[in-house]
Amino acid sequence: MVRRNPNMAKLPTAYLFREISRRKKIFMEKNPTVKVISLGIGDTTEPLPPHVMKGLVDGARKLGTRQGFLGYGDEPGFSELREKIAQKMYGGKVDAEEIFVSDGAKPDIGRFQILFGNNVSVAVQDPAYPVYVDSSVIMGQTGGYDNSARRFDNLVYMPCTPENDFFPDLEHTPRTDLIFFCSPNNPTGAVATRDQLRRLVDFARNNNSIIIFDAAYREFISDPELPKTIFEIEGAREVAIELNSFSKLVGFTGVRLGWSIVPNQLKYDDGSSVKHDWNRVVTTIFNGASNVVQYGGLAALDDEGMKEMERLVSYYVENARIIKEALGIIGLKTYGGSNSPYIWVKFEGETSWDAFSRILQQTCIVTTPGSGFGMSAEGYIRFSAFGHRSDIEEAVRRFDKLLPSKN
Amino acid sequence: MVRRNPNMAKLPTAYLFREISRRKKIFMEKNPTVKVISLGIGDTTEPLPPHVMKGLVDGARKLGTRQGFLGYGDEPGFSELREKIAQKMYGGKVDAEEIFVSDGAKPDIGRFQILFGNNVSVAVQDPAYPVYVDSSVIMGQTGGYDNSARRFDNLVYMPCTPENDFFPDLEHTPRTDLIFFCSPNNPTGAVATRDQLRRLVDFARNNNSIIIFDAAYREFISDPELPKTIFEIEGAREVAIELNSFSKLVGFTGVRLGWSIVPNQLKYDDGSSVKHDWNRVVTTIFNGASNVVQYGGLAALDDEGMKEMERLVSYYVENARIIKEALGIIGLKTYGGSNSPYIWVKFEGETSWDAFSRILQQTCIVTTPGSGFGMSAEGYIRFSAFGHRSDIEEAVRRFDKLLPSKN
């Protein structure tokens, strides 16, 4: 018989958000009459804006005509879309040839793991988006799961907590080949300052590491002092890859469109080009994002689409403000929630899953347990600002029912 | 510095179809006035049929409404689509829960390689769709490339030629963990008979191997004696996975939609479920096919969509008949081309790339060199039947210009 992939066997539980939806389902079956509000997974809730939607519709219609039909496209995406991303999102400071359009950041992470293979060492922020860790485990870059430490062996965890301003203590971080870094951060909502990112880039340059920088929430940054892309930092082009996504910008979480940037200057120790190998991976095991969806992406980057994007993001930014304020009023200390759609809250004396269950029981609100993102986040809860305004308002009214923990 | 993934370094050249389009581009630049006709890559050319297109349009419109908006969906796809595939494509003989909707067979192959990891042994038909081999190499399942043999070490090649009726000599094939098998075959156009598939399934059962059965061209089968799915064969559910795609059915090569089937009965040597691990891979590094596109898939499986599918496939089937007949008239021995969109031709005394270049020079027709699919196909050329009818008719008129090879 075929042997089970031993790396798969290392994964202890289901993917975090599947587990949450399982628990939500059980709760709803037991409480069929209550309205459960989800401030859990960071999933957009507002309809596609009209101009973007029209882009999809017109794109599909074109494909129904002899002149407009397109079959296989270049795997890295429409040239026009790559150009437009370079111009609209990077002011031309990134070359269109360095941009690879994809079906989103999550599948791109999987492909980057394939690119680098199983002989690389990896560092992640703790807490971190679970896909960085899980995909490293699946690829065999880590050791087994240490049940007492609740961490994987041979994976470097960089604690990011209020104590260190959510930025890793780089002086005490061992060198790794890859460093996953996310800003605005999912889950903590922390946004790295220019100075912090400069320190991160210097650290990577000194160690000859590659940063995989996840900027999927960049449009939530309104403070002009905060960098929206790692490529605002001098020297980043030699050490960083950037991941990005249309998901949170125009409600494409289910429509699927993203991009990654692999700079021309990024090289391996033998001087060969990372971008060259990335192109080989993308052409071999990917067929490009759907052409219908790429037409939607083009519309999103029109002037009209950009305005819709701004309005949509502002809507969720206001949600975040409402939630953050309401949590403050009931006496909870919050982090994040400005320049970011996530509010990060410490529940003293409780585990994250206990707090998750208590919040669900007392308020019928689904959140995300911080410990699902890493052990340094035990006792924290992530509130997501994605939701209809009326649900957000209803949710914050329910916060009054949140009794203090029994401990 | 980070070390280049040594598996990437094993790959000797670009992905086959990128190389062909590079050569085509050079030819077109040198011959700007001629009309080049492509019978190369198997890419659909006819517009999306109206009902399927309407499915995409209506889907996009729904997402633009508050009631119809959908964010992240279940990674394995809409339940309704999984049900419909089970009913319409398998007559209910496959469970909807065993069907995983994807963005196509090619990316699914990459994910299956991740599922099985780098410690499995692999067999491929020779010739074979290059993605099976290249993805095995990238994952580290093979040794290095042997330049003299023009094959990878530690990969089992199963020659499939006219001499063995395009079916592997299983008595002399060593056991491997995985066996990639494609029918109707890309590139040879051969369709495995029920008896052949029975022998393949028995072989896998006796060896405790897993067959990855690629049925992407199944709708080209009109002969009721020929099996359209490996699951028509008794005992296949314990040893086979099936890959499939909407690409060739409704012109979705650029729209991106497919599915794979992982039966409940398929187990590893420790008794654990392959489907369980597959679900974990899919939920961790994939976000599901685009919801807009899934609406298109639902329309394709309506009664009206099924009729459109039949008409579209018939169009390409007639193209194949025309090409096969015309090649016969100029004295070439052909294989495939019925129950399949590919016609496979031996060019005596020439290498495949020489024949490719000669055909391009003499007729301005792009084909695919057989040797790009494997060494057993040296001297063969694949003609693809995808094309506008007028181009196919023009192409076959040009066949007269095909001079005999100089050898």
Would you mind describing this structure in some detail?
The structure is a homodimer of 407-residue chains. Chain A is of the alpha/beta class. Chain A folds into two domains: 6-47 and 305-401, Alpha-Beta Complex (Aspartate Aminotransferase, domain 1), CATH 3.90.1150; 51-302, Type I PLP-dependent aspartate aminotransferase-like (Major domain) (Aspartate Aminotransferase, domain 2, 3-Layer(aba) Sandwich), CATH 3.40.640.10. The first copy, chain A, is 39% helix and 14% strand. The first copy, chain A, contains 13 helices and 15 strands. Chain A has a seven-stranded mixed beta sheet, with helices on both faces. Chain A has a four-stranded antiparallel beta sheet with strand order 11-12-15-14. In chain A, strand 7 (178-182), helix 7 and strand 8 form a beta-alpha-beta unit. The termini of chain A are far apart. The interface between A and B is large, with 89 and 89 residues.
